[in-house]
Specification:
- It is built from four helices and four strands; from the N terminus they run βαβαβαβα.
- The longest helix has 14 residues.
- With about 100 residues, the protein is an alpha+beta fold.
- The chain has a single domain, classed as Orthogonal Bundle (MDM2).
- The strands form two sheets. A two-stranded antiparallel ribbon has the order 1-2. Strands 3-4 form a two-stranded antiparallel sheet.
Length: about 100
């Protein structure tokens, strides 16, 4: 007898306006705007633009790809830190979004 496999669908919580919280346009600090451009923009677009900047300027560490070597613009976003890992980067960037 064959068993049926049931896969639950995931749903994204939506606000009353019909957009998910992840796609909500966020205000961007002046420091972050120098790197990703002026806002408001969704968090997903901020992350895309940030990685484009990192790759364009070759700021990803060659030996440890999880680390980002900050230039002067990114140091302002990364609380003055010269090197941050990509997990810490997310937390530091969040401080520049409102």
């Amino acid at each position: 007898m064959a068993e049926k496999k049931v896969v639950a669908k995931k749903t994204v919580a939506k606000k009353a306006g019909g957009t998910s919280a992840f796609m909500k346009p966020m205000n961007i600090s002046d420091e972050l705007a120098l790197v990703v451009g002026k806002g408001p923009m969704p968090r997903s677009e901020v992350v895309k633009a940030l990685w484009a900047y990192i790759k364009k300027n070759k700021l990803q560490d060659e030996k440890n790809k999880r680390n980002i070597n900050a230039d002067d613009k990114l140091k302002a976003v990364f609380a003055g830190k010269k090197v941050v890992n990509m997990f810490e980067m997310t937390k530091l960037v969040s401080a520049h979004l409102s």
